[in-house]
Amino acid sequence: MRYNMENNSIKDRIMAAEPSAQWSDAGDGMLTVPVQAFRKVAETLKEGEGFDFLRSLTGADWGDEGLGCVYHIENTSTGENIVLRTLDPDRDNAALPSVHDLWKGADLNEREAYDYLGIKFIGHPDLRRLYLRDDWKGYPLRKDYDPSWNGIPEDNEETNDAALSYEVTKDGSFILKRHPLFEDDEYVINIGPQHPATHGVLRFRVSLEGEIIRKLDVHCGYIHRGIEKMCESMTYPQTLGLTDRLDYLGAMQNRHALCMCIEKAMGLEVSDRIQYIRTIMDELQRIDSHLLFASCLAQDMGALEVFFLGFRDREKVLDILEQTTGGRLIQTYNTIGGVQADIHPDFVRKTKEYISYMRPKLKEYHEIFTGNVIARTRLVGTGVLSREDAISFGATGGTGRASGWACDVRKRHPYGVYDKVDFKEITFTEGDCFARYMVRMKEIEESMNIIEQLIDNIPEGEYQMKVRPLIKLPEGNWYSAVEGSRGEFGVYLESRGDKSPYRLKFRSTGLPLVSCIDTITRGAKIADLIAIGGTLDYVVPDIDR
Amino acid sequence: MKRNVNIKSMKYEDFNDNEYIEQMLKELNENGANVIVGCLDSVIEWGRSNSLWPLTFATSCCGIEFMAIGAARYDFARFGFEVARASPRQADFIMVAGTITYKMAPVLKRLYDQMADPKYVVATGGCAISGGPFKKSYHVVCGVDKILPVDVYIPGCPPRPEAMLYGLMQLQRKVKAQKFLGGINRGISEKEYEKLMTADINRANAKDDYDESGLA
Ligand code: SF4
Q1: Inside any domain, residue B177
Q2: Residue B15 falls inside a structural domain
Q3: Alpha carbon of A134 to ligand 1 centroid (Å)
């Protein structure tokens, strides 16, 4: 079914077909759909209208209004966006229809909302907690959560082997069903959370048949730091500090996204100089991150030399960043309405020197690693992610582009000065590990192209706009996204007019990447899991937040 | 017998807290030592302090800096830290680099228990020391000293690689000062030691208002 095409905006089309939906204008604007009609609207959007990309799913506690979710959905062929909201006023038994079958990315996101807020998703096949332990008491993102309910656990975690699902009976009560995750005769091994190849504290449980992976179950939350909840009691400038520590290899970009979102809500335009500086910094950060990606991937696969090469070249980027910002890894550089300090007098010269140093050095990587027969055998053709799956999971960044999905936020929703520079969006069609590796190596070159176009033209102007120290945002909700080092990093901000956000959600770049692991590792060898995990390039604190 | 805590890589005067290590030496040497055992001790400690191998353990941002000190520019192999071991059974010390959350705490404890004695813990970064920027979170352990005995603290968010190297050298000095033979390291019984540990942990728990977030 499609909505009547006479109305040209999607919002009007939905409202014409579903009169109970209410539009609210504050901020970006969103459409509140009653929970009874939500599933139908979602189905029509996905099947009829081609809204195939669920950008972000945010659970929220709206007090007396109830508990619910906000969905940011995009049509990847037309670029249209819509924000839906649905909620259930019954706080004790909040239940929403699951959309995991429409957008695969909703699977883990719904588990997250269940974990944080206790919203039951009807029809979700595996509603376990995603981050917190099964014996956790209460739901931390509810406004009435009390931290004293939980303490440091002393006993080891029990692994629960039953997936839970809820169904509703005719009289409105719930039936809880349990399904075994793994059969009794399956051979299940545990990898992580302490394992050198999981890139941090991620845990997999893998069911094997010989060497072949039959099923994989991801456990997150070993580095869940509760950042979103902490932000709710911080002032806006204070919240900035935490973004750097999410995906620390995209510290600049993450902070850029939050600053952009707050500036959008304030209605503040920053000067061209700030835009230029931010864009250059984002690209330097991307080079840094991609070099680290290559190092770690090679190291995991046993090519230790590339690890040293990557770190050698990466240190030089860090030197440039450090000179201006004072930080190597965590720069805390962007501020609301500007940047912390003006660029160092040597910044332009050093950056140019770096680029002329780095271009020829890239060949070294290709000679040692890219062309290596072992690397090729392990990377080419393994872990294939199809384009449809990439979109459905929302696997953006290098992973999505390797599968042929042009998902670059810098092109889709230009920010900074990306609309003024000329750069190629690198895409491949194979979708295998090798394509994911090559996308990132090529992107290093593109980043250098972008920097070269900007570095000599940084306009004069202020590096920090005048902003009052105490920032209050008007009521409303906003979403801003940047192309982080490993995909779309989004910030959803809901304000009730206070000096701190009512709800702040970070769209993790890594969560969609781990959610597709199960799909792409099935049928692969257990050793390929290392290459697949390495090329997906997730950062665990960014998944767990 | 006077013990020598000099390490090859840095001059004795260049350390900032020599009183502390002298105090420690005094306490350890109060009862004296047999010449032969003492000499043997020195040799063993010389060997141990120059081949401390870390466990590959990192949970978040600080872990990247930990990788950086393993790479070419900072290269901690120069000081004998050589290779990071992926198995706790082969590691001499654990560098807790990154935030420890409630869910991770029992896992970390278990890793520590799996390491062979003598073993050391280095708390790296604000998070491992006190919870750092996440002190107010509902899911973060405010300092690993709540669950493990810590030997060296390296402050920073993240600490610079130089700071990490400095901290690791402090660990080397500590190892050198210890007695290996005869009353392992401390000259008190296991029971007493445990009692002291618990007292320490309780004291750390009481100091809850101590803020060291290092958040810019
Ligand atoms: S101390 Fe700072 S850099 Fe280190 S893990 Fe904590 S937040 Fe990250």
Answers
A1: yes
A2: no
A3: 27
Q: Say yes or no: B201 contacts chain A, CB-CB below 8 A.
A: no
What residue of A is the nearest CA neighbor of B144?
A152
A290 CA from centroid of ligand 1 (Å): 21
Which helix (H) or strand (E) element contains residue A357? helix A347-365
Return d(Cα B95, Cα B84) in angstroms, integer.
10
For the question of an ipTM over 0.90, the answer is no
B157 lines ligand 1 (CB under 6 A): yes
Pick the closest to residue A58 from A46, A72, A74 (CA basis).
A72
Inform me whether the C-beta atom of residue A150 falls under 8 Å from chain B C-beta atoms. Answer: yes
Q: Which residue matches tokens 């929302």?
A: A394
Q: How far apart are CA A398 and CA A406, in angstroms?
A: 10
Q: How far is CA B91 from the centre of its chain?
A: 13
- In this predicted model, what pLDDT tens digit does every residue of A52-77 receive, in sequence order? 888 888 888 888 888 888 888 888 88
How many angstroms away from the CA of A343 is the closest CA of chain B? Answer: 18
- Nearest-atom number in ligand 1 for the CA of A330 is 3
Q: Ligand 1 atom 8: the closest Cα is on which residue?
A: B61
Q: Looking at the 3D structure of chain B, how many domains does it have?
A: 1
Q: Is residue B214 part of a domain?
A: no
What is the tens place of the pLDDT at every residue in A426-478?
888 888 888 888 899 889 988 888 888 888 888 888 888 888 888 888 888 88
Gap from CA of A246 to ligand 1 centroid (Å) = 10
Helices B35-49 and B161-177 pack at an angle, to 10 degrees, of: 160
Nearest by CB to residue B72, choosing from A157, A312, A541, is A312
For the cut 70, the answer to whether the pLDDT of residue B3 exceeds it is: no
Residues in contact with B125: Cβ distance below 8 Å, sequence separation at least 6, in sequence order: B61, B62, B97, B98, B132, B154, B155, B156, B157, B158, B159
The pLDDT confidence band at residue A203, using thresholds 50, 70 and 90, is confident
Domains, chain A, with CATH or none: 10-146+164-179 (3.30.460.80), 227-456+469-537 (1.10.645.10)
- Residue-number span of the structural domain to which B139 is assigned: 31-203
CA neighbor of A477 nearest in space, from A270, A230, A264, A334: A264
Residues 513-542 of A with CB under 8 A from B: 540-541
Structure tokens at A45: 């959007």
Pairing type for strands A334-335 and A338-339 reads antiparallel
The predicted-structure confidence for A133-159, as pLDDT tens digits, reads as follows 888 888 888 888 888 888 888 777 777
pLDDT in tens, A232-264: 888 888 888 888 888 888 888 898 999 888 888
Query: Distance between CA B144 and CA A159 in Å, rounded?
Result: 24
Q: Give pTM, 2 decimals.
A: 0.84
Q: Between chain A and chain B, how many beta carbons pairs sit less than 8 Å apart?
A: 127
The whole-number pLDDT of residue B32 equals 62
Could you tell me if the CB of B124 is within 6 A of ligand 1?
no
- What's the CATH number where B168 sits? 3.40.50.12280
Please identify, by atom number, the ligand 1 atom nearest to the C-alpha of residue B133: 7
Is residue B166 included in any domain, yes or no? yes
CB-CB under 8 Å, A328 with B134: no
